[in-house]
Specification:
alpha/beta, Rossmann fold
Length: about 280
């Protein structure tokens, strides 16, 4: 496999994650990890990693999931984290150098087009990293080829925006100040592209997978405090993208409205809003 498998087919996502999108993700990294770790661990449990297994971690970002999977497969196993974002991978590689882990590897590559060793992986895993492909069938067909016979696929992805209070609530508050936008194409690459379970089943079946199953998972998320929740939800995700070019005055209005909307959800444990995800599993 070449050191860099990045191709231009997913150029928009590559530009986003190597530019402003990646920078904002890093600026909010600790808060984002706090939100996503519980769902990621649920998906890891469903993946059923065993000692000695070889795993591909798609959309690994700064490597949090990669290192946790590595602990589950043990020193006799191996995990390769794959991402298109050089800024995120730079953090992952710095962590790897400090850890000295011998079973963790990172690769700058687009999983849709990267040339993986045929049948080299026991499991392909992703925490919210597989909804951004320009051609999802081609991407999963490529990942299918990377799996050994009877190899496993496991990933977690979001259900519909309307089911995800942590997105819908701040977006509704912000919409009072932002220009109206046409409804997005539900099948376009993005965080909610796999909300439709029938679409997910069709993509994976067309790519060759069998025993496709989608398990709904509902957890609460938000932030350890109101300040943290506001900062995270206006810094990354759909609202963060919408505000990325906003001037200071508009941003101040939106942040104030989002704070007001989130305040009723503040508890002694922090801000808690409903999240809705799918844990998807399949086999080669």
């Amino acid at each position: 496999m070449s050191e860099s498998g990045v191709e231009p087919v997913n150029a928009a996502q590559i530009e986003h994650w190597n530019g402003d999108g990646g920078a904002r993700w890093l600026a909010n990294l600790d808060r984002v990890q706090y939100q996503l770790e519980p769902l990621g661990r649920r998906a890891m449990d469903r993946a059923g990693f065993r000692p000695g297994e070889r795993v591909l971690d798609i959309g690994c970002g700064t490597g949090n999931t990669t290192f946790e999977i590595a602990a589950r497969v043990g020193p006799e196993g191996a995990v390769t984290g794959i991402d298109v974002s050089l800024p995120l991978l730079a953090v992952a590689r710095e962590r790897l150098e400090k850890s000295g882990a011998g079973n963790v590897f990172f690769l700058e590559a687009d999983a849709q087009t990267a040339s993986f060793p045929s049948g080299g992986a026991d499991c392909v895993f992703s925490r919210f990293g597989v909804m951004f492909f320009a051609d999802s069938v081609a991407a999963f067909r490529n990942l299918y080829g990377a799996l050994r016979p009877d190899g496993r696929l496991a990933f977690v992805c979001w259900r519909a925006v309307a089911e995800n209070e942590w997105v819908a609530t701040p977006m509704a508050a912000a919409s009072r100040h932002l220009p109206p936008v046409p409804p997005p194409d539900p099948d376009a690459p993005g965080p909610f592209a796999f909300a439709n379970p029938d679409r997910v089943r069709n993509i994976l079946s067309e790519a060759g997978f069998r025993d496709v199953a989608l398990e709904p998972v509902d957890l609460e998320m938000g932030g350890r405090s109101l300040d943290e929740a506001v900062a995270t939800l206006t810094g990354v995700g759909p609202l963060g993208n919408a505000l990325s070019q906003a001037d200071a005055a508009l941003r101040e209005k939106v942040v104030s409205s989002v704070r007001e909307a989130l305040a009723p959800f503040e508890t002694l444990e922090g801000v808690r809003l409903r999240s809705a995800a799918w844990i998807v599993t399949a086999r080669r």
